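Page 37, continued from 36.
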């Protein structure tokens, strides 16, 4: 039976490990973090992702192995690389983790007699496969790509909070690389795994660029609607959601990613935008549109601060409640979350911050410690507050009403997700994307 190794057990790697093993594939999931591996072996996921734990446990009952020992890839036929590619301080991509991972894979590849295919799922800037990854693998393994092993770019499009569904049912499979026997095998593998899903076969550079195209287009859609939402705020009675809903019905536009909000965050869109901008700049192209997309994103955040300053005056010692620090609902992930950025900005202005989040309190505490307060209930979060800001669209915030707002000292409500629209509220209400009736 074919053996699959998955290197890097983050959102992408652990979802893939769990889904493939739950389907009965012989899988070994590998990560350098021993503690993380020990947790996963017990069926505990290191982060919250709906359904992940359930699927992982099914896999563990079948053939799934988890280990920090890279030599286990020696007898694999397929190796997926799913390690992170974070950003450097100047926004460029940091390839140190992936280089180290493929270097170790290369050393072990020397002993692998199965002529395996290595799929790189990690997001890498165009040219990385040919210029960095392929040479490392060939040098360390003393083998030839295309002859002794296959190397294929296989970008991932899953979204956190629907990672399992997206892993089971991707909308496309991209295979980038040379047209060798390995590419044919890869195509067969994916046709069997995901029948009827389009498979795009292309070269490495194009596959690498497809990933950036995808994420930068999504960011562009968000900044577009955010820009419109700011204009709507100047039109009494205008509602950005009705506009989004309507233009979304035009198949050329499409309905997704048109929810105006405080800006895009998370571990992918901001980082990939910066990496693409950096790559364009060093390639001698001025990325005018991409820069504007980022600028609109930053302005969304500044806008929230301006409103609080306008309504509350000097922010020193003002009590501000942030509802939701996770970068989106149904996750505990706060990496590059707009709410975290916002808190930092308020702390600089000496405001007193209380946060509430159904899942992300622990991760938020790891960043801010004693510098802010953490409320277990929404009621406690609102108590004696001067201003509440709904940042993340957690379902429970839809229920907020006058009774709860009565616990506040001053009732300034900033609704970044228009969750309370249409309610009779006895508060000073401001919603992103809504033109106040005069
Ligand atoms: C994103 C992409 O959507 C995935 O396709 C991709 O695989 C992934 O990055 C990645 O490169 O790994 P993810 O980071 O999970 O996925 O988050 P998104 O669902 O894209 O949300 C990103 C941010 O945009 C969030 O802060 C969210 O609140 C915001 N957003 C999203 C909006 O403000 N409005 C929208 O309409 C959609």
């Amino acid at each position: 039976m074919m053996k699959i190794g998955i290197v890097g057990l983050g959102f992408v790697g652990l979802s893939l490990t769990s889904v493939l093993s739950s389907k009965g594939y012989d899988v070994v999931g590998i990560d350098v973090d021993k503690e993380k591996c020990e947790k996963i072996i017990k069926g505990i996921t290191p982060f919250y992702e709906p359904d992940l734990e359930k699927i992982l446990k099914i896999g563990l009952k079948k053939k799934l192995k988890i280990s920090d020992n890279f030599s286990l890839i020696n007898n694999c036929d397929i190796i997926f690389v799913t390690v992170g590619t974070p950003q450097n301080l100047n926004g460029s991509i940091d390839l140190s983790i992936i280089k180290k991972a493929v270097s170790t894979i290369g050393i072990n590849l020397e002993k692998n007699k199965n002529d395996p295919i290595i799929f790189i799922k990690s997001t890498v800037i165009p040219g990385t496969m040919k210029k960095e990854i392929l040479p490392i693998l060939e040098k360390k393994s003393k083998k030839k790509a295309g002859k002794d092993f296959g190397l294929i770019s296989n970008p991932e499009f899953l979204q956190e909070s629907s990672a399992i569904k997206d892993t089971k049912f991707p909308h496309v499979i991209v295979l980038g690389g040379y047209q060798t026997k390995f590419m044919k095998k890869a195509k067969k593998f994916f046709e069997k795994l995901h029948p009827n899903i389009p498979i795009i076969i292309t070269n490495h550079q194009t596959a690498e660029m497809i990933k950036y195209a995808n994420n930068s287009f999504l960011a562009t859609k968000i900044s577009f609607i955010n820009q419109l939402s700011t204009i709507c705020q100047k039109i009494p009675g205008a509602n950005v959601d009705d506009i989004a809903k309507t233009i979304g019905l035009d198949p050329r536009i499409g309905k997704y990613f048109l929810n105006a909000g405080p800006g895009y965050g998370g571990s992918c869109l901001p980082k990939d935008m910066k990496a693409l901008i950096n790559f364009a700049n060093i390639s001698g192209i001025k990325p005018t549109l991409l820069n504007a997309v980022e600028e609109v994103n930053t302005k969304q955040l500044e806008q929230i601060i301006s409103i609080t300053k306008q309504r509350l005056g000097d922010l020193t010692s003002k009590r501000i409640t942030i509802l939701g620090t996770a970068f989106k609902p149904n996750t505990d992930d706060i990496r590059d979350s707009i709410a975290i950025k916002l808190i930092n900005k308020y702390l600089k202005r000496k405001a007193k911050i209380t946060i509430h989040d159904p899942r992300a309190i622990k991760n938020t505490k790891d960043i801010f410690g004693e510098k802010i307060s953490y409320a277990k209930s929404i009621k406690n979060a609102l108590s004696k507050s001067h201003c509440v800001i709904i940042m993340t669209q957690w379902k429970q915030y839809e229920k907020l009403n006058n009774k709860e707002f009565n616990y506040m000292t001053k009732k300034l409500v900033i609704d970044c997700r228009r969750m309370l629209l249409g309610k009779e509220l006895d508060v000073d209400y401001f919603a992103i994307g809504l033109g106040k009736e005069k």
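The CA atoms of residues 7 and 258 lie 34 Å apart. Flag for discussion at group meeting. Residues 123, 156-160, 215, 218, 222, 257-259, 261, 264-269, 327-328 surround uridine-5'-diphosphate-glucuronic acid (CB under 6 Å).
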